[in-house]
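Chain A, query sequence.
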Amino acid sequence: MKDAVLPSRTVLVVDDEEYVRTGLTRVLRDAGYTVFAAESGEEALEMLRDHPVELLISDNNMPGISGMELFSEVRRHWPHMLRIMLTGDTDPELAVRSINEAEVYRFLRKPWNNADLRTVVHLAFDVIVLEEEKRKLLEIVRRHRARRSLGEATPDAEAELLLLAEADLLDT
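Chain A, predicted structure.
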């Protein structure tokens, strides 16, 4: 198997409090992630239009666009981006709504524990990698089915599909 070189994983941190943005940015950069920071939901949406981001971590209670509104907007425009809510709000309904309505991956409370934050972010990127691989495999299956429907299938179609999948995954 080839040695895979992972691209720098990108995170956008959104919070109206500078010390929170600075703290999160420091912890995540020290863990090897590329981090962008925004102080509002509006600024976050602008940044997302200009920078590819894989993971969004946002507070909920901010002036202007709330975290829930931001997550819903991100879900519409960048559905594959994972979302983590980090908030000091203790309302359990918020956690339920954020997971059900905005499909938030995780809900973390302020103040956060740095080790827990690193673990949750690491697990989020594991999910992102698995989802990317799943999409690639589904595309391979789709192409294979299209070939087969055109009469291009070989007698050993399953073996060919496995070889295609392995070749495509190794090339990434």
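The first helix runs from residue 18 to 30. The CA atoms of residues 96 and 107 lie 9 Å apart.
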